[in-house]
Write a structure and sequence with these properties.
With 645 residues, the protein is an alpha/beta fold. The protein has a 7-stranded mixed beta barrel with strand order 21-22-23-24-27-26-25, surrounded by 4 helices. The chain has a 6-stranded mixed beta sheet with strand order 7-6-3-4-5-20. A 5-stranded parallel beta sheet has the order 17-16-15-18-19, covered by helices on one side. Helix 6 (171-182) links the parallel strand 9 (155-162) and strand 10. Helix 2 packs across helix 3 (72-88), helix 2 packs across helix 5 (137-144) and helix 17 runs parallel beside helix 18 (557-566). The chain is globular and about 70 Å long. It binds alpha-methylisocitric acid (MIC) and iron/sulfur cluster. Alpha-methylisocitric acid binds at residues 37-38, 65, 119-121, 361, 485, 532-535.
């Protein structure tokens, strides 16, 4: 039996474990990326690891998230990242150069290599045949220090794409269709591997839109073969030498096969407040629109924005709509400027932002109260845009642009515009905003501003764990709810004590106060707890507030890893109906925790308030167990360093 592409990529990098779905495997990481909102913490952790230079083939530090500089904080963090990158052998992509995933695809990604990034949308680079995985900053720091990355061997799902997209139906609609079918937890523990006749018609940026939003399915990653289309893209980026042909063996086996006939699709939208709440644009109908935001790592490529420019050319944005466009990279922006398309956007009334994440992470452009905002982004969680009462719909750039003109949600198939934008034979290449690392001999001073506070550290696990249920949450709680991010809070990503005042406040404004009054406690949650972002702040901040354990029906992959790395115990209900019995403020107690965790069996959690007990499970691998017992991964790394010296 041959291998599928995912198995081939894993096999090439496997340093530990067996490729059996569900088993723990360790893989060697070739490339890493960080962005600034998770990067500061990752580099503080890297500094604690006592190495001189990164051990990867390539590491890049991007600044793309914290771009508003209302005070000194963001600028200080940029300077810290720039100097620490220079010192440790890391390329630095300056603010304004673009969104990490887009720039990485353009300038650095290499088919066949592994990429670990401190951002959940790192799988974007699966669009050129990389094994690209999102992780917490500490895991990325460890990979930079040369350590393997440990993960659960995923199941591999073949997504067979047949037929051809009709005009005005897009790659975004393909991935929204998958979300409609599988939901936001449908991809947990899985890799989506794309194949089929339709691949010949899907350009690299379109493939990247699909792998990007695999994150919303909860998938470990998504991957496309590296074929002639990939070669053309890399050639146009002046990087043909990076190309390598990669595909699954003809007799490869898969755990499941999903088929999508592209000719049957039509424009789709994810309705508020979840990326899987998908409906046909035609069925939702002509609802009024107040804001349209085009950009993000999902849909801000040259071709995406050229199509938007074609739709807007000679028209005017509807008087009741604010249209804002954030290009994915400076390359995209420069090309639009050079060929006149930027002028078409500006003349139509679009508000042009710098190349970066911008409104996608609530860095400006918060909509008006109760506004309807159409966005080409990947997440529409409640409040993420900065306005709690706003309703965000996720759509393709074509639907967004058509709606911006009409003032109501518009099926772009009603347009009469030629949208055939060919892939450029040559992209405009200018890497002058990427600063290479310092030469070996140079002495580099790392600059740390006053906003950078030390990260919290746990203590080795105690024998008994006791605490009150400080909050009881439902299903699919996002990291945006656990640790909100917006223009006011992002500047404090390197200041955990400050962020702690906002932990879980979208769910209950009193949570931080409760944690303080009760000296910490436990969190109870439903399915898929911690979906969304890779931010380890969603674990570090609860750790700072004294959270000892999270009892949930299920966890999202990256957040579970971040909890373990912080020494917080992730427990799952053996009998999910026992979740119903638990009440806020119940006092819970687990005796003899280390022994129980070591035995790997069920764990009895006593409810001292109600006088009953629950059965929970904590399925940890040997490595995870060691981390939890030590009180977190940093303690383990420090312990190993002490032993070495
Ligand atoms: C996001 O899209 O939620 C982010 C902001 O890019 C996060 C990273 C972060 O919280 O800094 C992600 O996706 O991992
Ligand atoms: Fe940036 Fe949005 Fe992409 Fe996250 S999802 S990396 S905030 S553009």
């Amino acid at each position: 039996m041959g291998l599928n592409l995912t198995q081939k990529l894993i096999k090439l990098h496997l340093v530990d474990g067996k490729m059996i779905p569900g088993a723990e495997i360790g893989i060697q990481i070739d490339q890493t990326l960080t962005q600034d909102s998770t990067g500061t913490m990752a580099y503080l952790q890297l500094e604690a690891m006592d190495i001189d230079k990164v051990k990867t083939k390539l590491s890049v530090a991007y600044v793309d998230h914290n771009m508003l500089q209302e005070g000194f904080e963001n600028a200080d963090d940029h300077l810290y990242i720039q100097t620490v990158a220079r010192k440790f052998g890391i390329h630095f992509s300056r603010p304004g150069n673009g969104i990490c995933h887009q720039v990485h695809l353009e300038r650095f990604g290499v088919p066949g290599q592994t990429l670990l990034g401190s951002d959940s949308h790192t799988p974007t680079n699966g669009g050129i045949g990389m094994l690209a995985i999102g992780a917490g900053g500490l895991d990325v720091a460890a990979a930079m220090a040369g350590q393997p990355y440990y993960l659960t061997m995923p199941e591999v799902i073949k997504v067979e794409l047949t037929g051809k997209l009709a005009p005005f139906v897009t790659a975004k609609d393909i991935v929204l269709e998958l979300l409609r079918r599988l939901t936001v937890k449908g991809g947990v523990g899985k890799v989506f591997e794309y194949s089929g006749d339709a691949l010949a018609y899907l350009s690299v940026p379109e493939r990247a839109t699909i792998t990007n939003m695999g994150a919303e399915l909860g998938a470990t990653t998504s991957v496309f073969p590296s074929d002639g289309v990939t070669c053309d893209f890399l050639r146009a980026q002046g990087r043909e030498s990076a190309w390598l042909e990669l595909e699954a063996d003809p007799d490869a086996a898969y755990d499941q096969v999903i088929t999508i006939d592209l000719s049957q699709l039509e424009p789709l939208a994810a309705k508020p407040h979840s990326p899987d709440n998908v409906e046909k644009v035609r069925i939702i109908g002509e609802i009024k629109v107040d804001q349209v935001a085009i950009g993000s790592c999902t849909n801000s490529s040259y071709q995406d924005l050229m199509k938007v420019a074609r739709i807007l050319k000679g028209k005017t944005v509807h008087p009741k709509v604010s249209l804002v466009i954030s290009p994915g990279s400076r390359q995209v922006l420069a090309m639009l400027a050079a060929n006149g398309a930027l002028a078409d956007l500006i003349n139509a009334g679009a508000r042009i932002l710098e190349a970066g994440c911008g409104p996608c992470i609530g860095m400006g452009q918060a909509p008006a109260s109760n506004a309807i905002s159409l966005r080409t982004f990947n997440r529409n969680f409640k409040g993420r845009c900065g306005t709690l009462s706003a309703e965000v719909y996720l759509v393709s750039p074509e639907t967004a642009a058509a709606s911006a003109i009409m003032g109501v949600l518009t099926d772009p198939r009603s347009l009469d515009v030629d949208l055939d934008v060919p892939m450029p034979e040559q992209f405009l290449i200018n890497d002058n905003m990427i600063i290479p690392p310092a030469p070996e001999s140079a002495v580099v001073e790392v600059i740390r501003g006053p906003n950078i506070k030390p990260f919290p550290q746990n203590v080795p696990l105690a024998d008994g764990v006791a605490g009150k249920v400080l909050i009881k949450l439902g299903d699919n709680i996002t990291t945006d709810q656990i640790m909100p991010s917006n223009a006011k809070l992002l500047p404090f990503r390197s200041n955990i004590p400050y962020l702690a005042q906002y932990c879980l406040t979208p769910c209950n404004p009193k949570f931080p106060q409760r944690a303080e009054e009760h000296g910490g406690g436990v969190i109870v949650a439903g399915e898929n707890y911690g979906q969304g972002s890779s931010r380890e702040h969603a674990a570090l901040v609860p750790l700072y507030l004294g959270i000892k354990a999270v009892l949930a029906k299920g966890f999202a992959r990256i957040h579970r890893a971040n909890l373990i790395n912080s020494g917080i115990i992730p427990l799952t209900f053996v009998d999910p109906s026992q979740y119903d019995q638990l009440q806020e403020f119940d006092l819970l107690e687990i005796e003899d925790v280390p022994t129980k965790l070591r035995s790997g069996g069920e764990i009895v959690v006593k409810n001292k308030t109600q006088g009953c007990a629950y059965r929970l499970r904590c399925e940890l691998t040997d490595k995870e167990l060691t981390v939890v017992l030590m009180g977190g991964k940093i303690n383990l790394i420090k312990h190993k360093l002490r032993e070495k010296n």
